[in-house]
Amino acid sequence: MTTASRRPAPTATPPSSPPTTATGQGDPHIRGAHGDVFDFKGEDKVVYSMFSARGFAVNARFDHDVYSLGDTEVHGSFITKAYVSVQLPGQKDAVQISFDATRPDLAQLAIGRRRTGLAISPFGVNEANIDTFTQDELVVTLSKPHMNTAVLEVSDGFWRVVCKARLYPYSTTNKEKKRLDISFSQLNKDAAAKVAPHGLVGQTFDGDNIAVDGAQDDYQGKVVVTKAMGEGAIEGTASDYAVPTPFSVDFAYSRFYAEVAAPRDVSKLAGLKKKVEAGSKTMEASSTNDNPTDA
């Protein structure tokens, strides 16, 4: 266990409704905080802002690949690396955490010049374990709940990101390659009161109870070439969310240093809009796997 402070992280103020969650899994299909759905292939080896709130940012690298879904050959993409930045109050340097699907037994952490890491047993070893880092409100855990699953969780009392390293669907056929599934949760009901989040997934935490569906790929046929880039469901275009370096918090809609930022205006989006009943269920946003039987 790696610990920077023995003071336990404070309990987040309970939301008035179930925690708001957004996720991204597999060949990236996004499910927004109101149930919005759209696909986002990304450009090969490009890092995009997935989530940007005040003092809390998550970027992800997209890698193109050709893989099998049963009898279908897919020319698509997966998220392979995650880069989390957390700015704690009163601290000069942001905490930076990186997680790579190809080395899911390790998570690297840096605060200025200081370097440390979290470690668990590698894939294929039937051993459940956990490593933890805490500093003030920040809690970082790396755990292994299953022989072929590793989970990085980062929370600051307001927001939480969970990065789950998993095997591709049809793992044997796909040479046991690994990808990341990413989910985001709002832990504090006031987290977005002054600064509404943004990023490819973050913008769906807009509090308007309107789901906006965007472009989705067609997986019919023996060979599928994905191409959707969130058209209709995201502000601007895909290139607006690309960042110059893995931990950069600078992009067109960055909220990392913002004091005040309004939610997006969904009336300007071209996607299909659906009213969602407030508080009817936990809201989710995700990038999900193509194989419905892959748990």
Task: Explain what you see.
The chain is mainly β. The chain has one domain. It is 0% helix and 40% strand. The chain contains no helices and 17 strands. The protein has an eight-stranded antiparallel beta sheet with strand order 3-2-1-14-13-12-11-10, with no helix packed on it. Strands 4, 5, 6, 7, 8, 9 and 16 form a seven-stranded mixed beta sheet that branches. A two-stranded antiparallel sheet has the order 15-17. The protein starts with 19 loop residues before the first strand and ends in a 20-residue tail after the last strand. The N terminus and C terminus are likely disordered.
Described by strand count, sense and barrel closure, the largest sheet is: 8 strands, antiparallel
Number of domains: 1
Rounded to an integer in angstroms, the radius of gyration calculated over CA atoms is: 18 Å
In helices, the fraction of residues equals: under 10%
What is the oligomer described by this structure? single chain
Q: How do the strands of the widest beta sheet line up side by side?
A: 3-2-1-14-13-12-11-10
Shape: globular
Going by helix content, strand content and strand pairing, the class is mainly beta
Helix segment count? 0
Strand content: 35-45%
Distance from first to last alpha carbon: 29 Å
H and E order: EEEEEEEEEEEEEEEEE
Which segments are poorly predicted (pLDDT under 50) over 5 or more consecutive residues? 1-18, 291-295
Number of E-state strands: 17
Mean pLDDT: 89
